[in-house]
Amino acid sequence: xxxxxxxxxxxxxxxxxxxxxxxxxxxxxxxxxxxxxxxxxxxxxxxxxxxxxxxxxxxxxxxxxxxxxxxxxxxxxxxxxxxxxxxxxxxxxxxxxxxxxxxxxxxxxxxxxxxxxxxxxxxxxxxxxxxxxxxxxxxxxxxxxxxxxxxxxxxxxxxxxxxxxxxxxxxxxxxxxxxxxxxxxxxxxxxxxxxxxxxxxxxxxxxxxxxxxxxxxxxxxxxxxxxxxxxxxxxxxxxxxxxxxxxxxxxxxxxxxxxxxxxxxxxxxxxxxxxxxxxxxxxxxxxxxxxxxxxxxxxxxxxxxxxxxxxxxxxxxxxxxxx
Length: 323
Ligand SMILES: NC(=O)c1ccc[n+]([C@@H]2O[C@H](COP(=O)([O-])OP(=O)(O)OC[C@H]3O[C@@H](n4cnc5c(N)ncnc54)[C@H](OP(=O)(O)O)[C@@H]3O)[C@@H](O)[C@H]2O)c1
Fold this sequence. Notes:
Blueprint: E1 2-4, E2 9-14, H1 19-29, E3 38-42, H2 53-63, E4 67-70, H3 78-83, H4 85-105, E5 110-114, H5 143-163, E6 166-172, E7 174-176, H6 189-203, E8 207-210, E9 216-217, E10 219-221, H7 222-235, E11 242-244, E12 252-253, H8 254-265, E13 271-274, H9 289-294, H10 303-316
Parallel strand pairs: 2-3, 2-4, 4-5, 5-6, 6-11, 7-10, 8-13
Antiparallel strand pairs: 1-3, 9-12
Helix pairs in contact: 1-7, 2-4, 4-5, 6-8, 8-10
The structure holds NADP nicotinamide-adenine-dinucleotide phosphate.
């Protein structure tokens, strides 16, 4: 667990060792993104297993946070989700119930939790926006994760209504960046492609992209997301979730993402598409109109630059990277 700054706001980040948590650590510790009067603490599963109620209560009693950024979750890509939907449902329900109640028990004034655009209804109109979360069943591939995440919004409204607390949530699109999970079987599409291209390059074999390459995704760089989450914890006062995403026009196909990885790693081999593998949801185009109303000039890092920085980080940290 890492700590810095002293003062009256004690901000506790669950999942502080993950992709998004490490990005927040970077912004606070390396970019001077912390403010006077803020004390930051970042938890990993080594500090407490948040599926366990007693351990969660103990770690919250120890830190007595005034503010909580709740990132900890069982997270995985399409193929892991399809294998263990039950685990995604149960583990995330336990974690969320324990964390939100422990925050209440120590009288934390604000909790910001993390949803995802992949929890929205499968059959929907586009672009999706914050009002549509509960409008229909999620995609069959990840229903366990999706329903568990949707329940955070239910918790938030109930904590606000019954206890007058400031609980809210953010909805990022696909996140990528340094410290991602680059596991090919269980990780998300972009880190998986980066890892596969890295190996294919070394072994002088083709890069095999799973699926047709036609599904479309919006990607957000973890450091951009971290900066936005800091703004949410300090300034955003609605219980309703807010989508944290690049614009709809920034959506790319998996094929375009694979080509960007090829450029970033200077991969020279052939790229082939394994259409026997599932494509997952075709698209989940999200509107960032609400975010743009609050922060019209937010400077998103260009996709190619963020991808290049991520690939460079992966190559430089290959031995220690999660994979
Ligand atoms: N990655 C994406 O594309 C994406 C997109 C939308 C939303 N989100 C959401 O963003 C949040 C952060 O995701 P991420 O990508 O940063 O995930 P990640 O890299 O997989 O990190 C997960 C974090 O949760 C912690 N954690 C998991 N199980 C735990 C447990 N039982 N007890 C305590 N800590 C536990 C992990 O601790 P250890 O390091 O000790 O294992 C780690 O710090 C999640 O809520 C996720 O649903 C992610």
